[in-house]
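Structure ticket #2291
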Amino acid sequence: MIQRLDGFTLPLAVSYCRDYLTGFRKRKTQRLQKAAEYAKEQARKERIEARKEVSFELFKSLMKDTRGSKGRFRRTTESSE
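Resolution: structure written out below.
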């Protein structure tokens, strides 16, 4: 038996049921928090992946430009005064 503050006693099964029923809100908020954290982490991973793709495309374009420009530039021996 569980003794309440107002003097009534509750059978043990009733107290477990009450804890279970009052725990719905707590579990619901935990699920919402976990889903929000998961969404935040997925957004972070997507941003990182997008940055990697952009930097890789830039790297590829720079490498393509440097390979194609061999011999196109001449050295000038003139001094700029």
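Closing remark: The mean pLDDT is 77.
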